[in-house]
Design brief:
With 493 residues, this protein is an all-alpha fold. It is built from 22 helices and two strands. It has one domain. It has a two-stranded antiparallel sheet with strand order 1-2. The protein is globular, with a radius of gyration of 21 Å.
Length: 493
């Protein structure tokens, strides 16, 4: 398998992003046409990616040209496929929202494609400077996307807050890479890993400090507690498609980089970071839960709860020292579960806000179960999955995370995580109660059976199907199939 063929989603992403930039500069097209064109581009990239899912491979992408900086392996390819699905679902679900809001212009689609390219580069980078460049390509695109609604003061505030804090956090990544280079003489992850394996920790003070600085950037991008101050305002100030893209797709890209660093590079040193990860996970889970309980806006509630989900995954990262394979497998499975539930729940909110601007507070969703039963049922499935309710993919995801944490011997941490999971039922069920136990507060609307509701219903079915645990129908993939993909991906590292 050649570098050209396996890297085709990445090469096409660059070509399509530049082509879209030139197209909107010299041609006039409606927003709906541009959305359809962008979806077509992402579908083509996905068509090249899907045949290789679940296959064990590892290829250096044009090593002579890129100095061995980019590797397409089963691990990176799985995340590339997730990014493509996330982008495609964001555009498909948000079609109505994009068309009905005039501030979405051609630049939106160019920036989405550039953000996608940055995330794909991030998943395939095995060198710290190229990873930083990839991270900034994606992050800068997201910064501008957040601030596109220039007539909305909340959007401008969100843009400025995320830009300033995100740029500041990014400097820690560069400082960490510099210290690692000073100690090891390389910024390639595998060469750093070989250096760490051949030297005692007492001779690597700069490596330990450099790794901690890298973690600061990752904590900020993930919205971990004490680095979370931007999350609620930025998510609330973003348009629904952009929030969906950030919360469900961009966050996965950060964890892709984190996992590659921890598994390949810093696994022998995880013991030094274990206490930091444990404390951060505890603060993130508990602090995020307290924030979620206080919210009355559904958008801010979902933003606050995303902090809690980051805490769950940090809990499993803290278990990497005691149970590396179980923890890594659990994290990737949970990312897939959170991806489906997050895209689905935010997709429902995006669809409703496209038709009626009053859908903001939790009370505004009262009676949706009576006026739109299928949509309310789908929304309920997504919320139950986020809460970790049995028979959803979110339940299995939490089960694997807690199992890995217990296998590593962190019983107290797992106990706090379990308590936080029970607390999450309170704020998610506030929304479910509003859907079914109150009279409608917003006038009923008629939804045409367009692409958006169809995609939402399909994701809801996938959320339940993934929670069943086994493929009950031959040739269909259930949770067992996803675990097989994840195992193959980890074996390629």
């Amino acid at each position: 398998m050649s570098s050209l063929l396996l890297g085709m989603p990445l090469w096409l992403g660059v070509i399509f992003a530049v082509s879209m930039m030139l197209f909107i500069a010299f041609a006039k097209a409606s927003t709906q046409t541009l959305n359809a064109l962008t979806m077509g581009m992402v579908t083509v990239m996905l068509a090249f990616a899907l045949p290789y899912v679940g296959i064990d491979f590892r290829v250096v992408l044009f090593g002579d040209i890129f100095a061995q900086m980019l590797v397409m392996d089963s691990f990176g390819h799985l995340f590339v496929t997730l990014f493509l699905f996330g982008t495609l679902l964001t555009l498909a679900i948000s079609n109505r929202y994009i068309v009905t809001h005039p501030f979405f212009r051609g630049e939106f689609f160019t920036l989405i494609l550039f953000a996608l390219v940055g995330m794909m580069l991030l998943a395939t980078s095995v060198e710290l400077i190229s990873a930083y460049i990839a991270l900034e390509i994606a992050a800068l695109s997201v910064y501008i996307l957040i601030g596109m609604h220039r007539s909305d003061a909340r959007s401008s505030e969100a843009f400025f807050k995320y830009l300033v804090q995100g740029s500041f956090a990014g400097t820690f990544f560069l400082m960490g890479a510099m210290l690692l280079y000073l100690q090891t003489g390389s910024t390639h992850i595998e060469e750093i890993a070989r250096y760490i394996a051949s030297h005692p920790s007492s001779e690597m003070p700069l490596v330990i400090v450099g790794g901690a600085l890298l973690m600061v950037t990752l904590f900020f991008k993930l919205g971990a507690f004490w680095f979370h101050t931007w999350v609620l305002d930025v998510y609330a100030g973003s348009a629904m498609p952009i929030m969906m893209f950030m919360a469900a797709t961009f966050k996965i890209a950060i964890f892709a980089l984190s996992l590659r660093l921890f598994i390949v590079d810093f696994l022998p040193l995880v013991a030094y970071y274990e206490e930091i990860l444990i404390v951060t996970a505890l603060l993130t889970m508990v602090g995020g839960s307290l924030l979620s309980l206080r919210q009355t806006s559904l958008k801010r509630l979902l933003a606050a709860s995303s902090i809690v989900h980051s805490g769950y995954i940090l809990m499993a990262l803290a278990a990497m020292h005691g149970a590396p394979q179980e923890s890594a497998r659990a994290i990737i499975f949970y990312l897939i579960a959170y991806f489906l539930s997050g895209v689905g729940s935010l997709g429902v909110l995006s669809l409703l806000k496209a038709y009626h601007h009053d859908y903001d507070t939790i009370d505004s969703f009262r009676g949706l179960g009576a006026t739109h039963p299928l949509l309310a049922a789908s929304f309920t499935i997504f919320l139950l999955s986020l809460a970790g309710f049995p028979s959803t993919i979110g339940f299995l995801g939490k089960f694997y995370l807690f199992s890995a944490t217990i296998a590593a011997g962190h019983y107290a941490l797992a106990g706090v995580g379990l308590f936080v999971a029970f607390v999450s039922i309170a704020y998610y069920f506030r929304v479910v109660a509003a859907l079914y136990f109150y009279a409608p507060s917003v006038p009923s609307m008629r939804f045409a059976l367009t692409l958006t509701p169809v995609v939402i219903f399909v994701i809801a079915l996938a959320t339940v199907w993934g929670g069943i645990g086994t493929a009950l129908i031959e040739a269909n993939i259930g949770a067992d199939g996803i675990i097989d993909w994840v195992t193959i991906a980890l074996n390629s590292l």
